[in-house]
């Protein structure tokens, strides 16, 4: 099974259009020791045949064009993409669905609450109902494994909240366990298990045990420190309050997962302000010395 990292940045990408932080500025000026990144997006293929998208990022059109495996085949309209799985209803995770609107049928898998937020509260998603069977929505169960695209999947509810744009009535009737999920992905034909967790606010004991069963984890690398978001104009929350454990500090990811020795560990969903993007920085070397990798656009992982 091939898993391709099409994008590895947090919302806004790197560089972000309205950001002149040290990272974004130096990247634009061509003097940054690290790579530009598009917003977090995965795709996998479990064997010969169709591809499954994991989330639908705002950069999806460019990400498809950068990936020959996802190009249409034959002489007319076609796509190897058959399914899209959403781990939440945030703009960064779902807006790319609107880029797939050109009269093509595909399945969308999301929790019931995420499906209702997107299809019942946001009329713009009506562009995916222009003909019968255009987008077929299927609810992701939280209490049973399910299959998509030749893989066996399991959804684990994570501590997180619904997007700020949803109204009070929808928020009150939605199941909080359906807001943000992590996914455990294993080829149905057998092989390794990958966990995809781009938004993790904390690691309770049961989650730690599930991580230790994995072969590869793609884990929340949004912020280096608790205070990092406070340096961003308009934000006054800590990283944890935004649903992202920081990488550093006594309750950060490096310390909490230091004993996790089985899986290959990669950070993904990296915010443009994060110093680990700079491969000359002490923070980047601290992450590498602790046995972690930093995901990059175009990476491929074989399970
Ligand atoms: Zn920036």
Brief summary of the model shown:
With 303 residues, the protein is α/β, with parallel strands linked by helices. It has helices at 22-28, 60-65, 91-94, 112-120, 168-173, 205-212, 253-256, 282-289, and strands at residues 2-7, 41-45, 51-54, 81-85, 106-110, 135-139, 146-148, 151-157, 181-187, 194-197, 216-220, 264-268, 292-294, 300-302. It contains eight helices and 14 strands.
Record the SSE blueprint.
Elements: E1 2-7, H1 22-28, E2 41-45, E3 51-54, H2 60-65, E4 81-85, H3 91-94, E5 106-110, H4 112-120, E6 135-139, E7 146-148, E8 151-157, H5 168-173, E9 181-187, E10 194-197, H6 205-212, E11 216-220, H7 253-256, E12 264-268, H8 282-289, E13 292-294, E14 300-302
